[in-house]
């Protein structure tokens, strides 16, 4: 079936059409959340009423079209409600990661000029109150949870809805979305820049609506579909794919309780589609292999045979030649292995969609061998975000698939990937210079290097810019983190690594003069430099340094492990350029073994 309506041109237009379609149908619902240990649905009518009430309150507070209203919350029904209400009055929403520290929140609220912020709980409220005196434009705060004690300028969401309901009872047509135009800005999403100062990506209603329409022709969804949502809604990928696309097709979104409960919630929600990042597959694969290792040798042999059979079957089906013997073997493997694996994911899963970071080819093939399809895609916040995705009927691991409808791709002479089309951002908020750096000659320049195969499938081969993309899909600028670490007198040089990894680590060249002074003052007897680096007290010194630095960083930016390097990075050893810039690839390659050991030694943490 796909989209319920395909003629929407703004997000409030889409919301209104879907709400009208399901009016008076209590058995249909867009959202379900855990209440007292079981999933409870929220009906379309109930959500629509809440959206209208909150929209009326915001408008009465003086929020006008084009004003910015921020959202600082974990995934919960209030996030969807806040987003819909803000957009319904023509305001622009500014989503913030709940893991951000107060100083970064302050920068974004100040840069965007947000007038109101909607926060989830007392923890997030505390962050805002701590910086409120430096935010002259921030007028008030709405809190989704109950307030522990009254606070001037702070109102509970339930009270805001009550006031909105009263306004609508007196003036039913108080809220109207008719004045909103497709080229109006819908949202400003802040993303890491190479300098570390976040840039606000301006996405219009047209940008996002066109992307929803493009994705709907590839990932066919209808009201029989259900998803489990756990990626942050402040990320463009979850917002367009895991929220707007599903809502537009009448699918139900089940909210995971937390990242830790995903495997339990999958079994309960029985999703047909899951939008996720490669790191989840690493975890699932590790768990499956760990369980198999504890089974009898016979069961291990059956599992390995089923994996191999599955891979052969898919390779043969791509060529259109599956032998009767292989077909029979595949059916046997289905009964013995694939069916049991499928039950772990609720038994209804059609496919995973993977984005946000590169999916290792062997991981994709492993899951396909077990009868689970992963559709890897690609995109950037600046492209609303989806530009490419593998097709269910023709998955090529190691590629991110062909472009979606309405997106044109070009590979520049230096290999840089360029895009153009109606889903390309309007530009960066308050930063015309940065906009001109990436949008010129009619094309958006991604900063990524890639190549197209004979079928138009894109393979990303390198990154032009130094942004680190973790396996959790977080974009991190290493330079500002390196600058913070290098402020210590005990650090001479530092390089942060974490590309396609679950967390960041730092390679640190110590300042030996300062380190020797520290050793003398603390009665550390190690004489030579290399011996000093093995000393427990010295390692504790650097652990404390990184802990102090981490307080100024978002959760996903924290450096969790470090490696002390005995020799300076230099031009002579090929680790610095002639202009004394770090040759990141050369350094990573030189210390690859040690870096791998750091990650193996630490159990994956959630970012």
TrEMBL record:
Q: What Pfam family does this protein match (any one)?
A: AMP-binding_C_3
Q: Which UniProt keywords apply?
A: ATP-binding, Ligase, Nucleotide-binding
A GO cellular component term found in this entry reads:
membrane
* Reaction(s) this enzyme catalyzes, per UniProt: a long-chain fatty acid + ATP + CoA = a long-chain fatty acyl-CoA + AMP + diphosphate
Q: Which intervals hold domain AMP-dependent synthetase/ligase?
A: 25-429
Recorded hits in InterPro entries, A to Z, give:
AMP-bd_C_sf, AMP-binding, AMP-binding_CS, AMP-dep_synth/lig_dom, ANL_N_sf
Output the Gene Ontology terms for molecular function: ATP binding; long-chain fatty acid-CoA ligase activity
**PANTHER family the UniProt entry points to:** AMP-BINDING DOMAIN-CONTAINING PROTEIN-RELATED, LONG-CHAIN-FATTY-ACID--COA LIGASE
List the protein's name.
AMP-dependent synthetase and ligase
């Amino acid at each position: 079936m796909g989209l319920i309506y395909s003629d929407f041109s703004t997000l409030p237009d889409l919301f209104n059409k879907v709400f009208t379609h399901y009016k008076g149908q209590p058995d249909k619902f867009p959202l379900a959340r855990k209440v007292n240990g079981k999933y409870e649905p929220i009906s379309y009518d109930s959500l629509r009423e809440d959206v209208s009430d909150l929209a009326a309150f915001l408008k009465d507070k003086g929020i006008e079209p084009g004003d910015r209203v921020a959202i600082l919350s974990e995934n919960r029904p209030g996030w969807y409600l806040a987003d819909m209400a803000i957009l319904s009055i023509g305001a622009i929403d500014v989503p913030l990661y709940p893991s951000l520290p107060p100083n970064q929140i302050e920068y974004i609220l100040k840069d965007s000029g947000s007038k109101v912020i909607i926060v989830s709980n007392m923890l997030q409220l505390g962050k805002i109150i701590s910086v409120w005196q430096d935010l002259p434009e921030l007028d008030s705060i709405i809190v989704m949870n109950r307030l522990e004690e009254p606070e001037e300028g702070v109102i509970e969401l339930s009270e805001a809805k009550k006031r909105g309901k009263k306004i609508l009872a007196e003036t039913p047509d108080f809220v109207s979305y008719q004045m909103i135009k497709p080229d109006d800005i819908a949202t400003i999403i802040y993303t890491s820049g190479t300098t570390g100062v976040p840039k606000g990506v301006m996405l219009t209603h047209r940008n996002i609506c066109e992307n929803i329409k493009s994705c709907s022709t590839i990932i066919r969804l209808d009201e029989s579909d259900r998803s489990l949502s756990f990626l942050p809604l402040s990320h463009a990928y979850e917002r367009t794919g895991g929220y707007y696309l599903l809502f537009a097709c009448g699918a139900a979104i089940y909210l995971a309780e937390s990242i830790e409960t995903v495997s339990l919630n999958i079994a309960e929600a029985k999703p047909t589609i899951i939008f996720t990042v490669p790191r989840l597959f690493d975890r699932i694969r590790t768990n499956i292999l760990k369980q198999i290792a504890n089974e009898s040798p016979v069961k291990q042999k059956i599992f390995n045979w089923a994996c191999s059979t599955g891979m052969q079957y898919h390779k043969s089906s791509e060529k259109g030649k599956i032998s009767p013997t292989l077909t029979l073997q595949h059916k046997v493997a289905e009964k013995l292995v694939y069916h049991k694996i499928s039950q772990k994911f609720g038994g209804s899963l059609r496919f995973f969609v993977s984005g946000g970071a590169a999916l290792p080819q062997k991981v994709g093939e492993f899951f396909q061998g077990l009868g689970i399809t992963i559709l890897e895609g690609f995109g950037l916040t600046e492209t609303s975000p989806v530009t490419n995705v593998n097709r269910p009927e023709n998955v090529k691991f190691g590629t991110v698939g062909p472009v979606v409808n309405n997106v044109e791709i070009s590979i520049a002479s230096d290999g840089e990937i360029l895009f153009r089309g109606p889903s390309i951002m309007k530009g960066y908020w308050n930063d015309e210079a940065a906009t001109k750096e990436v949008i010129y000659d009619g094309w958006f320049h991604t900063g990524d290097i890639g190549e197209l195969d004979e079928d138009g499938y894109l393979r990303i081969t390198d990154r032009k810019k130094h942004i680190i993309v973790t396996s959790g899909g977080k974009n991190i600028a290493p330079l500002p983190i390196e600058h913070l670490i290098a402020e210590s007198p005990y650090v001479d040089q530092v390089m942060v690594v974490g590309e396609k990894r679950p967390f960041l680590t730092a390679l640190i060249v110590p300042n030996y003069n300062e380190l020797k002074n520290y050793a003398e003052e603390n009665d550390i007897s190690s004489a030579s430099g290399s011996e000093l680096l093995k000393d427990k007290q010295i390692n504790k010194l650097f652990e404390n340094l990184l802990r102090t630095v981490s307080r100024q960083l978002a959760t996903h930016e924290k450096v969790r492990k470090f490696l002390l390097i005995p020799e300076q990075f230099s031009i002579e050893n090929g680790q610095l350029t002639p202009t004394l810039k770090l040759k990141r690839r050369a350094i990573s390659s030189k210390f690859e073994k040690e870096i791998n050991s750091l990650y193996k030694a630490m159990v994956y943490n959630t970012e």
